[in-house]
Amino acid sequence: MSTTPSGNGRKRLLHLEQVHKRFQMGEVAVEALRDICLDVQEREFLVMVGPSGSGKTTILNILGGIDVVTSGKVWFRDQDMTSVTAAELTRYRRETVGFVFQFYNLVPNLTARENVMVSTEISRSPLDVSEALRLVELEDRQDHFPSQLSGGEQQRVAIARAIAKDPLLLLCDEPTGALDFATGIRVLRLLVDLKEKLGKTIVLITHNGAIAPVADRVVRLRSGQIVEVHANPTPVPPEEISW
Amino acid sequence: MSALDRKLARDLRGAAGMLLAITGIIVVGVTCFVGLSSAYVNLAESKRRYYEQCRMADFSVELKKVPLAELAPLAELPGVAAIRPRIQFYAAVDLPEVAEPLNGLVLSLPDRPQPIINDVVLRRGSYFTDRRENEVLVSESFAQYHRLRPGQWIHLLLNNRRQEVFIVGTAISSEFVYLLGPGRVTPDPKHFGVFYLKQSFAEDVFDFSGAANQVLGRLEASRGGDPREVLRRAETILSAYGVFSTTPLEEQFSNRFLSNEIRGLQTFATITPTMFLAVAALVLNVLLTRLTQQQRTTIGTLKAVGYSDWQLFWHLEKLGLSVGVLGGLLGCGLGYWLAGAMTGLYRLFFQFPDFQNEFSPWIHAAGLAISVACAVLGSLRGSRAVLKLRPAEAMRPAAPRQGGAVLLERVAWFWKSLDSGWRMVLRNVLRNRVRTLAGIFAAAMGASVLVNAWMMADAMTYFLDFQFRHVLRSDIDLTFKDEHGEDALLEAARLPGVDRAEPFLSVACTFRNGPYEKKGSITGLVPGAQLTVPRDLQERPARIPRAGLAMTRTLADILHLARGDTVTIEPVKGLRIACEVPVAEIAESYLGTSVYADLHYLNRLVNEEFALSGVQLTLDGDPGRRAALDRQLKELPALQAVGAREDIIQGIEETVLKHQWVVIDIMVFFAGVVFFGSILNASLVSLAERQREVATLRVLGYGPWQIGTLLLRESMIITLIGAVLGMPLGYALTAFTAWAYNTELFRLPIIATTGTWLWTLVLAVMFGLVAHMFVQRAIHRMAWPDALKAQE
Q1: Residue B362 region by backbone torsions, left for phi larger than 0, else alpha for psi between -120 and 50, else beta
Q2: What is the pTM of this model?
Q3: Across the interface, which of B2, B6, B392 has its CB nearest the CB of A67?
Q4: From the CA atom positions of chain A, what is the Rg in Å?
Q5: Is B251 exposed, middle or buried (0-12, 13-18, 19+ CB in 10 A)?
Q6: CB B390 to CB A117 under 8 A?
Q7: Of all helices (H) and strands (E), which one includes residue B698?
Q8: Among residues 5-44 of chain B, which lie with CB inside 8 Å of chain A?
Q9: Rounded to 5 degrees, what are φ and ψ at B265?
């Protein structure tokens, strides 16, 4: 069983306890996660690294409430997330979590501004749409459709959509995976700023180990298990990393 | 507008072509529902109001002559609310500018206006005045045709005397909503009208002082309208006065035609829209399942963002709802127009004082509700399927569909003979079961509508031909007021232009077999008659036995008779002696309750030597002699009616047949919308799903026409299978229509010609090709290189 070291004074936001996840893909059963124990602390930048198929996306989905465990427990603060109803899970996603996907997942026939509105319209206390777009430096492209934006711009719209709800937690699934190096660095800088200036908790998964130094803590995964967790007392600015 | 609603609006625009095609099918269904239902309400309500206004009789008794003083027991019968005796006779009508003989039914009305049973509604002029005895009210349609106005004089042959009468007005009555002259099947205002005389004048001119030969009656409301018991007792009470017939309202000719039509409308207001809306729901189901699959990732993302299942379900359902609302609104509008057109058509046949296309809010509301329900049901499968997924699963690409061989591949010799194109086509058709079945169902419905429309047209054309060219072969039928002897036949044969004259005897009687009874008549024909040749359904001449009766299967079934049984007949005229008669022949016939016998045998049954009711004539075709014949016939006082076969045929052709083609055009259009909509939808959905496959084929070197051919093969297979399956459905629908409209008097033949089947297939293919043009255009316009890169 893997464990996480105790935090550096930060409160525990999420706790996974002996989590297993099995998928049925047609006739084949896949053990995506095995015996995972993991904490996510408030206002930390947590990076999970591992090759394709190591279970990173599965953990992220479970943390985000968009998938459920086969066995084990998931705690959000004091709440046992494995025994909540579907409606409570929806509320959790709506109020607590912002998701950023590798391929952006923008609605193709909505403009940048409208894609952000999709998020603010269901949120109880959202950021102003223009403010969210300003934070990602896209206020002058807000009336463009995704097909009219570059990959980096689309990713920034996706980030704006995620943060417009003012969530506690930002979950990022390979946010730089489809971007060139320079754009990827820009996105990382944005995420780091969100953590430092707005106090967001960021969980980022990637197969690109070069990104790990940016994190406060790094979790390494292989074959559905945590193989290493180490703290990073001096995170490196995104501009100083390269791949 | 919320972001999701903007997305919805753009989704609708993006799929506009396909959605409009489905909307078209919904429009057709709702149009049929609103149009037929509104026409039904228009007709039923007009009937109800008119019958109430005119105090329509619940029954009538026709008899030889009864003193008015003897009617008190009838009025006092339990259940009888009121009676009204009147005088009725047929008469010849002499209009100076009309060469041919015209017929009329003369009825008496009170000298002064008062509320009466079977009252009249004045249309022009006034009721009778005190200025003249010989005033007349003329039926409006006859007056309009012949441009007769109040203030004109005309002549009627009343009681063998030529009488001049003064028109004071024109009128209509609820008892003649569908005004038929003797021997007619459609209204014929040119040759037949109703003439209302003052009671006092009628009594005088027909020698009926203080007497009547018809009694009309109304029942108490509590009886619920069933007059049979009353009529049985009436017949007993009035038996001494020569009761010819007793007629409940449901058997009164005009009411029967009207009620039959109303009943038919009610039936088809349910069946026809259901067929179209079922197709729309299925086709919408296919489209929306595809659209929601396409949005799988977006739906998953929205769930991840925090949208609830219900919010997303509602968002997806709004897509279907939009189609339902648009289709419903357009269908309601077109349905109102259709009802107006049908009402206009009915005005040619049915006469009401006020017959308008009324707007029924509840019918339109129901039409809209049905449309929305159909669309919502059609969208359910697609909406539910994606919503059942968890967000993470929704964002993962869908698991590849089951591969593997299809059933046809087991027929190895056949499969090997196919090229890769045909293999792709057949596998697609067999693997997409829901889509294929939806397409087959839609094509079957379209084909069945076409088959039904053409078979109905063929039935009417055939019936016209059968009845008026094979059974009735005379040019002119003369019907006398009373029976005459052989001298009348000889006189008729000597009329100008007459080639052949054959007598007939018509004996009205009651048929009885134990507890079973039916009023009708027997027609006596000379052996070897050429001018009336009764035929069975296979057009074979029915054998008229030398002794005994030849009757139709319908009447035999009513009386529970088989060939060889005996039936009791009781003539209503003459000595009225009941006798037992063998049933020598029973044949299927389109005319429900006809009975034939040898003329001489029938004469013996009624104790006559050689009585005849009329003579059938064929003419030599010389126009000069025809004109002379018409002049002479006008002068013959003994005639009750003169019927010219060509006039009857023309009447049917100009009314029923001509408008039938309008109906057929509409049904062909509706069927076309169904074929077009379903084929276009299925093909475009298929194309959208296989963009990457199409792009790959383009890379390999296939041109857009070759790719189009693959999709065309798929749609043609489905269309042709559906069309072939739809043909027996159409046949069954026609059989049902015939059953719905059949009465004891008349049944529609069921005619299926090779042309019907061929044209159905041809039109199905044609509509399919038209739909494919749009698909081909989409293939030409497709940005296929992008399809190689894009994720769905």
Answers
A1: alpha
A2: 0.83
A3: B392
A4: 17
A5: middle
A6: no
A7: helix B691-700
A8: 6-7, 10-11, 14
A9: -60, -40
Residue type at position A23: F
Question: What phi and psi, each to the nearest 5 degrees, are found at residue A84?
Answer: -85, 165
User: A122 vs B305: CB contact, 8 Å cut-off?
Assistant: yes
- Decide if A90 and B306 are in contact by the 8 Å CB cutoff: yes
Task: Give CA–CA dist B687/B708, Å, rounded.
Answer: 10
| Residue B156 structure tokens | 């009627």
Distance from CA of A237 to the nearest CA of B (A): 29
A96 touches chain B (CB under 8 A): no
pLDDT along chain B (792 residues), means of 10: 92 88 91 94 95 96 93 92 95 87 93 96 96 96 95 91 94 95 84 96 95 95 72 89 88 90 87 89 85 85 90 89 93 95 89 93 95 88 77 72 72 85 86 89 93 89 86 91 88 92 92 89 92 87 90 90 93 79 87 87 90 93 87 81 87 79 86 90 86 79 86 93 95 87 75 92 94 92 71 45
The DSSP element (H or E) to which B489 belongs, if any, is: helix B486-493
Cβ contact, residue pair B391, A115, below 8 Å: no
What distance in Å separates residue B304's CA from the closest CA in chain A?
Answer: 6
Angle (CA) B301 B306 B311, round 5°: 90
Chain B contacts of A115, Cβ < 8 Å? 3
Q: In sequence order, which residues have a C-beta less than 8 Å from that of residue B437 and are 6 or more positions away?
A: none
Residue of B nearest to A116 (CA): B3
The token pair at B206 is 């027909």
Cα–Cα–Cα angle for A81, A44, A224, rounded to 5 degrees: 55
Q: What residue in B sits closest to A93 (Cα-Cα)?
A: B306
d(CA B321, CA B332): 16
* Per-residue tokens: B469: 């060219």
How many CB pairs below 8 A link A and B?
87
Do A117 and B3 lie within an 8 Å CB cutoff?
yes
pLDDT in tens, A132-187: 999 899 999 999 999 899 989 999 999 999 999 999 999 999 998 888 899 899 99
| Residues 6+ away with beta carbon under 8 Å from B524 | B504, B505, B506, B507, B596, B597, B598, B599, B600, B601, B602, B603
Note whether B91 and B195 are within 8 A (CB).
yes
Q: Does B783 touch chain A (CB under 8 A)?
A: no
